[in-house]
Amino acid sequence: MDEVVFDEEGIKFKYLSNWREQRKEMVSPNCIKALVKVVEDNPSTITVYKNNAGEVTAVAQLEEAFKESFEAQGWTIVESRILNLNGMPVYNIICTAEEGGKTLENNTSALINDGNMFVFELMHFKEFPYAYNDYLAIMDSVEF
């Protein structure tokens, strides 16, 4: 399987070619990449957003706002922590919600670089974790 390189908007990362492109206009105005993969009739999406970081200069400043946002949307927070990714601090939050007898999992990672906040979001059913390894590989390939 081939790797595809995304190198736009001040960020570079790689993803596998078995992820299909979604129309990013359908997701959000701040979306810079939207991917979908369906395995055994279970869809997974990886969406990447770029926003102006404003006053935020460190990912630690994002934790409370992200927690409040996910809780307000009805998600259960499973994990919230700051990780080190190739020497870069990354805020990571994992949330779950029940959906049709399955567990929908949201993995969100935020990075700050050069006044911009980049947010990577994986949505998948926990019972079908195939997409998670692809998400980790994408995160591991991030370069600015």
Provide a short characterization of the protein structure.
With 144 residues, this protein is mostly beta strands. The chain contains two helices and nine strands.
Written account of the structure:
The protein is built from 2 helices and 9 strands, in the order E-E-E-E-E-H-E-E-E-E-H. A hairpin with a 2-residue loop joins strand 1 (3-8) and strand 2. The chain starts with a strand and ends with a helix. It is mainly beta and 144 residues long. It is globular, with a radius of gyration of 15 Å. 15% of the residues lie in helices and 54% in strands. The chain has helices at residues 63-72, 130-140; strands spanning 3-8, 11-16, 20-21, 31-39, 42-52, 76-85, 88-99, 102-113, 116-125.
The amount of helix comes to 10-25%
Indicate the radius of gyration in whole angstroms. 15 Å
User: Tally the helices: what do you get?
Assistant: 2
Structural class: mainly beta
Q: Tell me the domain tally.
A: 1
For the secondary structure, the number of strands is: 9
Label the CATH architecture. Answer: Sandwich
What's the pLDDT, averaged over the residues?
93
**Main sheet attributes: strand count, strand direction, barrel closure:** 7 strands, antiparallel
Low-confidence stretches: none
Please give the CATH class: Mainly Beta
Shape: globular
Oligomer: single chain
Task: Report the CATH topology name.
Answer: Jelly Rolls
Q: What topology, given as strand order, has the largest sheet?
A: 3-4-5-9-8-7-6
Approximately what portion of the residues adopt beta-strand conformation?
A: over 45%
